[in-house]
Write a structure and sequence with these properties.
The complex is a heterodimer of chains A (286) and B (339).
Chain A: H1 2-29, H2 36-53, H3 58-87, H4 93-113, E1 127-130, E2 133-136, H5 137-159, H6 161-171, H7 173-178, H8 183-205, H9 215-230, H10 235-255, H11 260-275
Antiparallel strand pairs in A: 1-2
Helix pairs in contact in A: 1-5, 1-6, 1-8, 1-9, 1-10, 2-3, 2-4, 2-8, 2-9, 3-4, 3-8, 5-6, 6-8, 9-10
Chain B: H1 2-18, H2 23-47, H3 55-72, H4 77-99, H5 104-124, H6 126-129, E1 135-136, E2 144-146, E3 149-152, H7 160-182, H8 185-195, H9 199-202, H10 207-233, E4 235-236, H11 243-256, H12 263-277, H13 285-299, H14 305-308, H15 326-338
Antiparallel strand pairs in B: 1-4, 2-3
Classes of the chains: A mainly alpha (286), B mainly alpha (339).
Chain lengths: 286, 339
């Protein structure tokens, strides 16, 4: 049981990373990034190639994840989403566009990488044992890097000028514009950051989970569940959501055989949403 | 009127007689018709301003209900068809009560999870649904008898023409019913839900009731579609209808145009024909669909039919409906000031 809880905590941290990316994009641009899972998948493929095949430094591969996914994020924001936000009369248009981009990324990945599952060699082969709980070195690395990244992100949002601009943009778009903030640039930055968070999470979790083109869809659904539990658009909500999902998954898979775990999780989400329709920490206005 | 007559003639008489023996071409139209029925349901939820990414769950549900009833209880298909629809509608109603009160994004994401949940349910209801093995060898529809009078003869194996007329009739009935609904008082009330969640109740419209009506009908149509599919394909698996199918139904709707009731039908037929025509490059199919979605969103966000029914000609409001309400004008004014 203690082992399951520890596993849950470690998994939860990486999941929180994914949820943070989605929340960032949603908070700033009011778009649900359906392609988030596919960006995660691309991140894991990048690590597969740079670390698994070319044998470069793992952390450098993570850095490449950030760069490539940020670039993709910039392209999406600049050419797709900016136009749709300006043009659309219906609120659903941006979501449908996001779904389109998700399908596009998935198909491109399928065509480029093929269908088979891949994996990367573990970065650390040791297993640490503390009080009867076994922690693989691999997972410890994932856990530590996740915490560092989350902390960095929180510091960025809290203390830098751009972080302030993003928070302002999430609150009220018109007034932020009046304050002289370049909305286009901040939106682009926010989307790029969200995308690269997904990519980095993908790169990290490539050490643990198999890498294949379909993992995107799964992660998308998981990230939506996290956002729904924790509340969309708020940073602490994302972290809490990620955490709770990590714990539920770990304990669920440990105690209940088969695929019933996710069924229970989905029903739990419906329950949470009945009690608190905006998620645990969601704010009205989204 | 003339256009309707011509299309009706084409659909019901010319096409089937011309291609009577070519099962492949009949198959395309049969699939398109059933997809149109399902997409009409999704369209109805678009009318109230929500995105329903969970239609595949109810299609799966309707399909399994028909499969189980036909195989286990030997019920006639003609009884199973409405029952599947009603069961899907009922479950939609029950699920809709808690989830329809969620605001925009949460509702959409939750419906996405519903599709996954449905697959998991079907996977895990061992005895009833045979889990991952699925149900196969589902019998073709038998004869529909009233007393000793045979109204519809039993379907023979390999006879695509009967499925053609079955799906065509169901599509026409659905279209007529929804057209009537759209132009009725209920339809107008549904459209107000999309415009404003706070203004509508202040005009005395019970938004909970109308949201539920739209969602239940959507799930009902999903169940009917699933039932038709399962008896056509004669097998069902938990993965028969996935998230990607839900997304395709949405795509059909908004390719044709979300403001027009013929939109989903046009979208379904067009895309199914295109998909079949592009069979040689099938592995790019999803990619092409994705590019289509993106291109349409960026340049033709109101769908294909908006090209024919240009906005200015009919004095429509900012969202293409014929209302042009005061709310629209206020909204346009505010938008101009803050752009």
């Amino acid at each position: 049981m203690a082992q399951m809880i520890v596993n849950g905590i470690m998994l939860g941290m990486s999941y929180a990373l994914i949820a943070l990316g989605l929340t960032l994009i949603f908070g700033i641009m009011n778009i649900v990034n359906f392609a988030h899972g596919q960006m995660y998948m691309l991140g894991s493929f990048i690590v597969y190639y740079f670390y698994g095949i070319y044998h470069w430094n793992f952390f450098f591969a993570l850095f490449m994840c950030i760069v490539v996914l940020a670039l993709i994020g910039v392209i999406f924001e600049r050419f797709f989403f900016r136009r749709i936000i300006k043009l659309s009369t219906r609120a659903e248009s941006s979501m449908l566009l996001a779904i389109g981009t998700a399908l596009l990324l998935e198909n491109v990945a399928l065509l480029s990488f093929g269908e088979k599952n891949r994996g990367v060699p573990p970065i650390d082969n040791r297993i640490y044992a503390i009080l009867n709980i076994h922690i693989p070195g691999n997972r410890l690395v994932v856990f530590t890097v996740s915490i560092v990244l989350i902390a960095a992100l929180l510091l960025f949002i809290r203390y830098t000028k751009y972080g302030l601009a993003m928070r302002a943009l999430a609150q009220d778009k018109e007034v932020t514009y009046l304050m002289g903030v370049n909305i286009n640039r901040i939106s682009m930055m926010g989307f790029a950051m969200g995308a690269s968070l997904a990519g980095v999470a993908g790169g990290l979790l490539a050490l643990i989970f198999p890498i294949f083109f379909g993992s995107g869809a799964n992660v998308s659904i998981k990230s939506f569940i996290m956002i729904m539990i924790g509340g969309a658009g708020v940073v602490p909500g994302a972290i809490i959501g990620g955490f709770i999902l990590g714990m539920l998954e770990s304990i669920g898979y440990g105690l209940i055989p088969g695929s019933v775990t996710y069924l229970i999780i989905i029903f739990a989400v419906i329950l949470v949403l009945i009690i608190r329709p905006l998620g645990i920490m969601g704010k009205p206005g989204y | 009127m003339l256009a309707i007559g011509v299309i009706g003639l084409l659909y019901l008489v010319i096409y089937p007689i011309l291609f009577r023996q070519q099962n492949y071409l009949l198959n395309i139209v049969i699939t398109s018709s059933i997809l149109s029925v399902i997409s009409l349901g999704v369209w109805l939820v678009f009318v109230i301003g929500r995105i329903n990414i969970g239609q595949a769950a109810f299609v799966l549900l309707g399909a399994y209900v028909t499969a189980i009833l036909t195989i286990r209880l030997n019920l006639s298909f003609w009884l199973c068809l409405p029952i599947s629809g009603l069961v899907a509608g009922l479950i939609g109603f029950l699920i809709g009560i808690p989830i329809l009160r969620l605001k925009g994004v949460y509702f959409d994401m939750l419906t996405l999870c519903l599709t996954e949940a449905a697959m998991l349910v079907m996977l895990n209801l061992g005895g009833l649904t045979q889990g991952a093995r699925g149900i196969m060898n589902i019998p073709l529809p038998g004869a529909l008898k009233m007393g000793t009078l045979i109204v519809i003869p039993a379907f023979r194996p390999g006879d695509y023409l009967s499925f053609y007329y079955l799906s065509a009739v169901i599509l026409i009935l659905t279209l007529m019913a929804l057209w009537r609904l759209n132009n009725s008082r209920v339809g107008w009330n549904l459209r107000t839900l999309r415009q404003s969640d706070t203004l509508a109740p202040s005009c005395g419209i019970d938004i909970v009731r109308y949201r539920l009506i739209a969602y239940t009908i959507c799930c009902f149509l999903g169940g009917i579609g699933g039932s038709l599919f399962v008896v056509y394909v004669q097998s069902i698996f938990p993965t028969s209808f996935k998230v990607i199918d839900s997304i395709y139904y949405m795509l059909y709707c908004f390719l044709g145009g979300l403001n027009y009731i013929l939109g989903p039908i046009l979208g379904a037929f067009l895309l199914t024909f295109t998909f079949e025509g592009l069979r040689v490059i099938q592995k790019y199919q999803e990619g092409i669909y994705a590019c289509l979605m993106i291109i349409f969103m960026l340049w033709l966000p109101n769908g294909l039919l908006s090209l024919r029914f240009r906005r200015g000609a009919h004095k429509k409001g900012s969202d293409g409906t014929r209302s042009g309400t005061i709310l629209d004008r206020i909204r346009q004014f505010v938008k101009q000031q803050t752009r």
